[in-house]
Specification:
Layout: H1 4-30, H2 35-52, H3 67-74, E1 80-81, E2 93-96, E3 100-106, H4 120-137, E4 142-151, E5 160-171, E6 174-183, E7 186-197
Antiparallel strand pairs: 1-2, 2-3, 3-5, 4-7, 5-6, 6-7
Helix pairs in contact: 3-4
Bound molecules: tetradecanoyl-COA (MYA).
Tetradecanoyl-COA is lined by residues 83, 86, 88-89, 125, 128, 132, 143-146, 173-174, 194, 196.
Subcellular location: Cell projection, Ruffle membrane; Cytoplasm; Membrane
InterPro entries: HotDog_dom_sf, THEM4/THEM5_acyl-CoA_thioest, Thioestr_dom
Family: Belongs to the THEM4/THEM5 thioesterase family.
Length: 202
């Protein structure tokens, strides 16, 4: 067991490590350096992996469940970063109002599907995050029961994207939420999700 202060330092250091990992993933996937640099970088990366893998936890670190609700209580000026410890999750920071949420993102080359376009699976991931985290910010522990995505037009890479979500209807344990992505003020994709509040408490 680590002491509380050490734990805080360890999480902060892990955040930096994950940020560096994201940068490494993008650089690796897009580098045009020569053979010698590629072989050397591969060797160095394997050495780093060997060090880190000596002691591992079974799962990726998670944030505190109540953190989005705390950000919502402060207001839209407070940002909540999703999955900061997860290099594969789409990096985004949400801002909550009384009725909804928004975020501003840019999708880089790692998220490409069709040429110059965000992969449809990542579009769904982004929108599920916008809806699901809004539920979480409202203090509801719920799972996505269904998620319908409509792809109106291509969502471009390397361009500013605006994300939105809001609650449409609440009926007992069932909540319908919707979200959308805008580029240059035009909707590229929309989502409508059904969320079921779990019976069990956390
Ligand atoms: C790439 C890297 C990623 C990093 C990611 C980090 C992840 C972080 C994670 C963040 C999370 C992000 C979000 C995620 O990714 S959530 C993950 C994806 N979702 C799941 O895995 C959910 C799987 N499903 C279930 O567990 C159960 O089916 C649930 C819990 C949803 C309901 O089972 P439960 O036994 O509790 O409920 P019930 O049967 O008593 O039904 C209750 C009511 O609901 C109605 N109903 C139920 N289902 C449907 C349906 N499909 N359409 C229409 N209606 C439906 C049903 O008719 C009834 O209505 P009524 O008769 O009362 O009127």
């Amino acid at each position: 067991m680590r002491a509380v202060e050490e734990e805080t330092d360890h999480r902060a250091a892990t955040l930096e490590l994950i940020e560096a990992t994201r940068e490494l993933m993008l650089a690796s996937a897009t580098t045009e350096m020569g053979l010698a640099e590629l072989h050397s970088a591969t060797e160095q990366m394997r050495a780093i992996t060997a060090v880190l893998a000596q002691r591992r936890r079974p799962r990726v670190l998670r944030g505190d469940f109540d953190a989005p609700a705390r950000a919502r209580a402060i207001g839209p000026e407070a940002g909540y970063r999703l999955f900061p410890f997860h290099p594969v999750a789409f990096p985004m920071e949400m801002h909550f109002s009384e009725s909804g949420a928004r975020a501003s993102v840019v999708a880089n080359a790692l998220f490409e599907g069709p040429r110059e376009t965000v992969h449809g699976g990542f579009v769904a991931h982004i929108l599920d995050c916008m809806l699901g985290t809004l539920m979480q910010a409202r203090g509801t522990l719920a799972l996505t029961a269904s998620l319908e995505i409509t792809y109106h037009r291509r969502t471009p890479l390397d361009e500013p994207l605006e994300l939105f979500s809001r609650i449409v209807e609440i009926d007992g344990r069932k909540t319908i939420a919707e979200g959308w992505i805008e580029h240059d003020g035009v909707r590229t994709a929309e989502a409508r999700g059904l969320f079921i509040a779990l019976k069990e408490t956390r």
